[in-house]
Amino acid sequence: MTENFFAISNGQPLNDVTPLVAHHLLVVGQTGSGKTTTTLSLLDQLQHANYTTIILDPTGEYSKLPNSVTYKLGENAYLEASRLSAHQLREALQIQGNQLLNDKLAQAVDALRIQQNLVQSKQPYVKIGVPIATYQKQLARLSDWSRSFAPQNLAAQLIEEFVVPFADERADYSLLGQQYDRQTINHEWNLIATLRQRLASDAFRMLFDPDPHPGLFKTELNFVIKMFLEHRSSHRTLVIDLSALKRYEESQRVVISLLLKNLLTARLQKPNNFPVNIVLDEAHRYLPKDEHQLADNGIFQILREGRKVGLSMTLTTQSPLDLPARLRSQFANLLLHHMTSPEELSSLAIADEVNLSKISKLSTGEALLLLANESQKKIKVNLPKWWDKQA
């Protein structure tokens, strides 16, 4: 018999928790108010209900969840570098740059794709003396099957992108270049050196898995997610453990956004007849600092477009004020733990329906549940019994 962890204030168990994730669910509450308890208990009951759930876990906190399938970045999973644009690569590697660097990095990626897929070489593409017509024909041969490249060569290839004709009568403008633009290379040298350092870092090797490792099999994260989207899991939960990047919050933000955008694209291309819930703790940490970039973020795109293809999100945050107003407006379901700030309550669309004094008196593990088109309920959440055994 399934154990019930959600109980209404009168003691009656909340037997079916699937309505909580039928729409996007926001779980709010101060530290120690019970957000983790709520999320773990919800996940446990969804698992019993055979509801497909994908957890993006930036801290590794969900490794204790029983019956989960865990793919940990740097151990048994990696991200294919070709999935990222030049701008995303730069962000994932935490490289500050200008438009020139973005353009040259994009050209470097194309050159390395040619080397790996057409030339079958692991060396950088030396562009001095190469006819423009030859290079354009090579670019035209690239397609989806030839997206892979050797990201560890990006810094060396970037130097090859700074080639120019001779500055005198020997100039041949039919070639990609005849000499290195040493002045520009010297001007951008700090960025190139930083890129080389990042590419040699442990974080890079964990993220993109560029090194051969005979006998050790790793799976590409987007492939894992795609399989879970296409085949209903049998009482299992997928955990994508990104804790290897804990020290690199900006890199985590880029990776989470990319995985979610690819997840949405996969569902749009191949809709399925079973719903999927996506869970992310402390979501505000992984949103862009510039709100103008929100529309390009995977979290926002899932919230805005996911429901039409059966994707819902469960996000937790300490304060709704940490989330942009455009994002807060996407939640039809709310679980409100202890809050004392009138500003936080007024930032939610249901402010007129909820009494602040009622929320401020909630004890740890208690919450106010507000579902779309239903009356609010005060609930008590208990940790699953397996949690004590794991602690």
UniProtKB/TrEMBL annotation:
SUPFAM superfamilies assigned: P-loop containing nucleoside triphosphate hydrolases (SSF52540)
Helicase HerA central domain ranges (all copies): 16-262
Cited Pfam families: DUF87
Cited InterPro entries: HerA-like, HerA_central, P-loop_NTPase
Keywords tagged on the record: ATP-binding, Nucleotide-binding
Highest taxon of source: Bacteria
Record GO terms (molecular function): ATP binding
Protein name: ATP-binding protein
Organism the protein comes from: Limosilactobacillus avistercoris
